[in-house]
Magnesium transport protein CorA (Aquimarina algiphila), 1800 residues
Amino acid sequence: MKRKQPVKIKKTKLAKSFGKAPGTVVYIGEKEHLSTKIEIHDYTKDSYNITETDNIEDAFVFKGNDHTSWININGLSHTKEITRIGEFYGLHPLLLEDIVNTNQRAKIEEYETHIFLVLKMMYFNKKQEFTVEHISIVLGKGYVITFQESEEDIFDPLRSRISNSKSRIRNSSSDYLGYSLLDAVFDNYFVVIEHLGDKVELLEDELFNEKTNSNITQDIQSLKREILRIRRSVLPLREVIGRIIKSETDLIQEKNKDYFRDLYDHIIHVHENIDVYREMIWGLMDMYMTTISNKMNGIMKVLTIISTIFIPLTFIVGVYGMNFEYIPELKWKYSYYVLWGIMFLLFLALLIFFRKKKWL
Amino acid sequence: MKRKQPVKIKKTKLAKSFGKAPGTVVYIGEKEHLSTKIEIHDYTKDSYNITETDNIEDAFVFKGNDHTSWININGLSHTKEITRIGEFYGLHPLLLEDIVNTNQRAKIEEYETHIFLVLKMMYFNKKQEFTVEHISIVLGKGYVITFQESEEDIFDPLRSRISNSKSRIRNSSSDYLGYSLLDAVFDNYFVVIEHLGDKVELLEDELFNEKTNSNITQDIQSLKREILRIRRSVLPLREVIGRIIKSETDLIQEKNKDYFRDLYDHIIHVHENIDVYREMIWGLMDMYMTTISNKMNGIMKVLTIISTIFIPLTFIVGVYGMNFEYIPELKWKYSYYVLWGIMFLLFLALLIFFRKKKWL
Amino acid sequence: MKRKQPVKIKKTKLAKSFGKAPGTVVYIGEKEHLSTKIEIHDYTKDSYNITETDNIEDAFVFKGNDHTSWININGLSHTKEITRIGEFYGLHPLLLEDIVNTNQRAKIEEYETHIFLVLKMMYFNKKQEFTVEHISIVLGKGYVITFQESEEDIFDPLRSRISNSKSRIRNSSSDYLGYSLLDAVFDNYFVVIEHLGDKVELLEDELFNEKTNSNITQDIQSLKREILRIRRSVLPLREVIGRIIKSETDLIQEKNKDYFRDLYDHIIHVHENIDVYREMIWGLMDMYMTTISNKMNGIMKVLTIISTIFIPLTFIVGVYGMNFEYIPELKWKYSYYVLWGIMFLLFLALLIFFRKKKWL
Amino acid sequence: MKRKQPVKIKKTKLAKSFGKAPGTVVYIGEKEHLSTKIEIHDYTKDSYNITETDNIEDAFVFKGNDHTSWININGLSHTKEITRIGEFYGLHPLLLEDIVNTNQRAKIEEYETHIFLVLKMMYFNKKQEFTVEHISIVLGKGYVITFQESEEDIFDPLRSRISNSKSRIRNSSSDYLGYSLLDAVFDNYFVVIEHLGDKVELLEDELFNEKTNSNITQDIQSLKREILRIRRSVLPLREVIGRIIKSETDLIQEKNKDYFRDLYDHIIHVHENIDVYREMIWGLMDMYMTTISNKMNGIMKVLTIISTIFIPLTFIVGVYGMNFEYIPELKWKYSYYVLWGIMFLLFLALLIFFRKKKWL
Amino acid sequence: MKRKQPVKIKKTKLAKSFGKAPGTVVYIGEKEHLSTKIEIHDYTKDSYNITETDNIEDAFVFKGNDHTSWININGLSHTKEITRIGEFYGLHPLLLEDIVNTNQRAKIEEYETHIFLVLKMMYFNKKQEFTVEHISIVLGKGYVITFQESEEDIFDPLRSRISNSKSRIRNSSSDYLGYSLLDAVFDNYFVVIEHLGDKVELLEDELFNEKTNSNITQDIQSLKREILRIRRSVLPLREVIGRIIKSETDLIQEKNKDYFRDLYDHIIHVHENIDVYREMIWGLMDMYMTTISNKMNGIMKVLTIISTIFIPLTFIVGVYGMNFEYIPELKWKYSYYVLWGIMFLLFLALLIFFRKKKWL
């Protein structure tokens, strides 16, 4: 019952675009109420300007000068403003749809005047919560526009590099800025992956330390789901970056392609790590199964030892509890002590048997 | 016995085309008795005409004018009429066979004057039942013909867009109409996939909440089968849409190819989701197995605790139930109370043992 | 012991060709004693002749005329006659070896004057037994030669189509005849696959209906083996038909290639179905395992309930069976009834405990 | 402890070449003490000469004449002689290293004057032991040199064919001789594979006949290992033969390529069989698991039936073994018989209960 | 808690480069405190010079002469000196970053004047500990520079070969030196793989010898992890060496490419072995599961045999322990002996039953 609700919410979410004409710009995501904030970094080798505004038209000033501009748009729910900036920079309607559709998988599209990238950002936010965010990057001649769902700090180191006039970023063109943005996104992938590895190792420890409780199945399954989710985000990135490298666009200078090749390497590395952790998690499940089986064995051993020792002894004492009138042993004076002796020997014999069976 | 029957029905179904000359147009499906209904939307930018008829010849009027026509044919069992329209529009006999063979998998075939597509529609009908339907689309210059098994409402939003003279569909050529039809079909895939995801999550909840009954294996297996079925329908779509994009036909304008590229993205997205759910279902089975094993462990623990406590105690009381004439303890006044004391200590010792074993 | 024998037979079988020079035409198969029967259908649009004979030379008359001839040779053990017809029609020695080697997998070889195909036929014979048969097809200009192990009826519908002067087969060249033969073979694949699907479903039903007996593992394993066997036959067909389509031979007219493309579709469809059933069978094994585990749980529950109730009670009655002289309760008049009361309360308490554990 | 030794031997073996300059010809294998025996078959259509010698220089006479020579060198440990023949025939140093390194996987290398092949022979030797042997083949114009570890009889049928002046081998060039050698090697693969299939079937029988002992896990695992080992040998052969077919060398005549194509088919066939047996062995493991589980179920049933019947009965008789002074039933004359009746009814009730549970 | 720490250390490690500008040369590894030692082997056919120094500038002397120089740099934490040598030899900044980033996976990059390779060395150090080390190789015209984390002895045999004026290495150019270095690295892979194989076999032995303790799951899981780790290092090597072979650089002479082809073969061999061991380890887990299940069966059998024999007997003796006044058997003189007879027969009957069930 409790579960049903989020499911319904999802259906509502989807319903927003369902049946609409393709190319309709409808925000599909969960951060509805955030207003659109615009942050513009405009710089040359020598000058640096930073503007923060709520008015989308402030962003139009920077087009066409010989500066490099990074226009960072936070908040995707106000689709009207997204549409306006799209029109101003000549973006294709389908592309605008992708910007505001947070279900869109990573992809790249090349146009004459710009390259369009959709990615997933993954990071731990200030509260150390795992966060997946939709980000779109438009890389044009002299400008880079980024569209984010909410204002986050993963670009902070980049901001400080831009403010430093001696940084390579200030001395390079917009393609290097684009590369730096991607590099910042991918750096966070490594953090996420490493965190995942820690979780796998923690679970492994728990399993070995026999501190297993019934929740471990849930932990393994939820880890599995998380890994599948990350994998789905990373999977298309290989192709995305690969296509930038092979692209013949003049938006990316030949000398800067090495940087993108480096990104490609990073992605493959992330990918391989994910696959390794995936196999390890499957292995955990197997380990858990053997742990359960071993425990059951332990329980059964105790039961069997106790039963095997005492059931025959109980039989013996039962024999002499019978009320037959003629049981000669009953009359004999030392019967009781002899019986204890016999029972003790039987007990010893069984102990030796168990030791030989390696149950003790 | 009950089961045998549907199997026989299937064989009869197959028998219809079995041994016949290839190219023979025989309806293979389960909706035999439906008459063929034709619905024609004929429009230009400025005009819009809708015709509903039972007479196939009414559809021939619209060929050759400079309008765009969407001829929607519902009901495939009257193969004669299908053959007639096929002959009128110059469709290949094998193609007609594919239209009426509901077992045909998705495929694309390019001809000089038209492109032929076979697809599976998947949707929840008005009664919220999961429905798979065979649909064929012939995309020609100025016309699109669709062949459906039964009249359903997944194209309703499309119909209303056509009736709106300002919609892009009214202002575009027949290839955009074709795209819109495919888009409507694929939108429903997402709904189906999402529904699947809900089911997987519900099953997961049930497993965690220990509300497991023996039917859960059936649920998992039937979910697995459903996923395999959907996957089989989606698998060839990738190639189908990929071939439209790479096609050099002039039936699809270069400027509209972007829309088809978008469809391609959608299909890959659907595909990835299916694979994720598939892995999750396999994981569910594993989880269920560990749940069973854990339960067994619980049962065994109870049995072992009870047995381990009471079997030795029963032995002890058995000893003093023996009828030997010389058992000194029997005569001693406090024997009974001392024995209770000993048994209580043994009981405590075993409790401590179980607590150490973490069984309590 | 019983098993050893077929194995030895196999070795003998292999020994026949073992160590012989390659290209030696030795029949490798199990239908040794069948004589070679020849059946010749010679037809044009207007004429139709059918000849049945034991004399291989009767087949040589039909070469070179402008008719189309289908020469069907049944029985492969008389290799001399196979060799003679091979020499007459200019077939390569290695090709003759393939015709009589029933272990040969499906393949295609193109020669200047003919195309050579090896296939496996799969069908249910008149006695409804699953049969796999080796068939070779030589497709030349104006003639098609088929080599079968034994005379079977899967080509009967084809024979009646040939006898009908208005059929497409009578109005087409030998490549259409070749296609029709392949189509007949593939139609039977669908029947076999469907039968397989029925078996899978029957097994599933048995598992659900708890009618499980220990043979079900055997059934599953033998089903698995059967599927692997069919898969091995179907696997190379994709390439075989694919190569016909891509071939530049003039033996197959361009206009008839569509028919072969259709065959290609059929093969992919068969292939996908096999993979689905394969996954389902693997799923059955899992289901069976959980069924066993569930049963074990049921058995354990009964044991645990009975033991947990009666072992403590037996201890209690044991206590008052002791022969101590000073047990005050023994003397008290209502002890017996009070004890029954206590035991009944204990019984109730355990019932409540089991109900809480959901074991009852 | 016993196990450690072969491992150490292996390390010594490896140590031989470890750290040496690449191209150093060091024998790596286990048949150290065998002297090098040379066997030369020199033939034309009309003449045939066979020479057996220990002196490597006897082999040099046959180079350059217009005969075809097969120089078969047995024993690889005398690397000096290998080096000498290598120098005489102009073989690359790395190639010599491969000849004497029995760990080398199958490969092909083309040189201007010869083609070099490394293979694994697999066969059952005269004592019916499974043997894997390293063989290198140098195929040059007019000569074929084979390097074997030990003299074995798998080429015996070939020897007799060579001695027969009417055989195709006598009438063909050295490439046909090379093909015949490969064909002899591959024929033995089929024998090995078939033997493997027999083993799988035997194991399956054992499992079904319930003759399972604890060794079956070992049998399955060792079968698995054997299959992995064969697979590793066969895997590269596909590429090796494929490259001969695609090769543009004039050492292999175009008309003889068909023979190599036939070999390629054989290899694919072997490969497919291995994969099928592999899947079947994995299936065996599953079957074994269910067999164990079924047995456990059987054991549990017996335990549960006995316990469930006798534990309550034992409780009842315990009640009347109590020594209370006031148990009215004890005094009643027919109590004993009535109690037997009650216990018998209880016994019957439980039997009916078990029959309903299908445990009996 | 104990576990958390290494995880934190890792995070610190990563943090070093996190957020920095790409191309920043920061050492990422664990061997911080090692100073940079430089070892230069400068040789021609006739001369040989070896220099060991701490001063990076000593390495600059050797550039440009017609000798071949091997500059081996040990210790990567002093990034300044790495940067200086990088600048001197014209290495790309990103390349320097890869040299000091020990997390970098194997890769190859071709530049006009040099080829850059990153690899993982795997070996057992002098203390026989498994060690993975990061190594970068810069192969230029007349020089090879290697960057290692710590000074190790795997290149010792190579050093002695260089000192021998008649070795091929002294008579070849720098590409052969590069090959020899790679060959030394790969030789150690074989040792590691072989060691892994020994471990797998040891575990298998332990499983068969029933010396299983609960640690075996851990051993299997850690072996699995080790294999995944090695696999991740080996995986990219295939491509790395493959690209050297396909490269059109003039840094590697055509006649020496055969050596690299040989390396390629080695890598594939390593790869196949890893995959075989991987499958074997998965098989071990299965075997372990069946071992546990078999043990459980053994335990259950003992329990069931003991219970089945003694529970009915205990019931019987219980019957005659009842205190009814009228039990005729109690009075009869031979009752006791007859009862023993009956119980002995029951005992025998059960033994026969167990023998038939094959439990004894």
In short: Chain D touches chain E through 62 residues (CB under 8 Å). The beta strands of chain D are 37-43, 48-53, 68-74, 107-110, 114-124, 130-140, 143-148.
